[in-house]
Design a protein that fits this description.
Helix content is 51%, strand content 7%. By secondary structure, it is mostly helical. The relative contact order is 0.13.
Length: 230
């Protein structure tokens, strides 16, 4: 939202996330993958020719399907395929340092189906299992991205959610510097209709989860004797 509000760096939609892609196919009335990609490149590009997309590791596979379709070479490397679809790409890796806080926010969003604050309030239920699994998934995805960037010899601009929340304008300017762009002098600061989802519930869940993960858990082995694990 912050980047999009500048009008200079495209619209970073989740174009290659399956549920979003299915919704847009229906909404746009497209009938082929080529037509869909053509529309995506139009909708995601600002007037100065900059295209943007948000790609999470969970839908990297779909993104590469489209890239290889454009490249016409199903044996080429990932970076070669992406370059064929999006010439001269720049990579920004946004991640959250506090994985537990991210897992709690993800759990709340999944339970309410509200992915940004401000929607209708729905009941929330603390679930150690759900938070723990999502924290595990976040760490796995972070590791996958780290290995992928290293394998492709790409050094992305690394940003953290924490610094973005603390200094939105300064973080946007770092992306502009990566692209060799400047925001118009004296122009309005980037704006977003989103706000932080974190609240007292989040803090309570984070504290509870950390307390439960720090507590030894009793298990029983095959002989029936108890043992401790963390």
């Amino acid at each position: 939202d912050l980047l999009h509000s500048t009008g200079l760096v495209g619209a970073a939609g989740e174009w290659f996330l399956w549920p979003e892609r299915a919704r847009l196919w229906r909404e746009w009335g497209v009938g082929s993958h080529d037509a869909y990609l053509e529309r995506v490149l139009t909708e995601g590009t600002s007037a100065n020719g900059v295209f943007a997309a948000k790609v999470m590791w969970g839908h990297m596979g779909e993104f590469l399907l489209y890239a290889r379709r454009v490249a016409g070479d199903y044996e080429c490397g990932d970076r070669t395929a992406i370059d064929a679809m999006l010439p001269s790409p720049r990579y920004v890796w946004l991640r959250r340092t506090d994985v537990v806080a991210q897992a709690v926010s993800w759990t709340k969003a999944a339970q309410t189906d509200e992915w940004r604050a401000g929607g209708e309030e729905k009941p929330l239920v603390y679930s150690f299992g759900q938070i723990d699994w999502l924290a595990h998934q976040i760490r796995v995805w972070d590791g996958a991205w780290r290995r992928w960037f290293a394998a492709q010899r790409i050094e992305p601009l690394l940003l953290s959610y924490e610094e973005l929340a603390a200094d939105p304008t300064g973080t946007v300017d770092r992306v502009f510097a990566l692209l060799g762009l400047e925001r118009p002098a004296g122009g309005p600061a980037p704006v977003s209709g989103m706000r932080k989802q974190a609240d007292e519930v989040s803090e309570l869940w984070i504290a509870r989860y950390r307390a439960e993960t720090a507590r030894p858990v009793s298990t029983t082995n095959a002989s029936g004797s108890a043992r401790k694990r963390r």
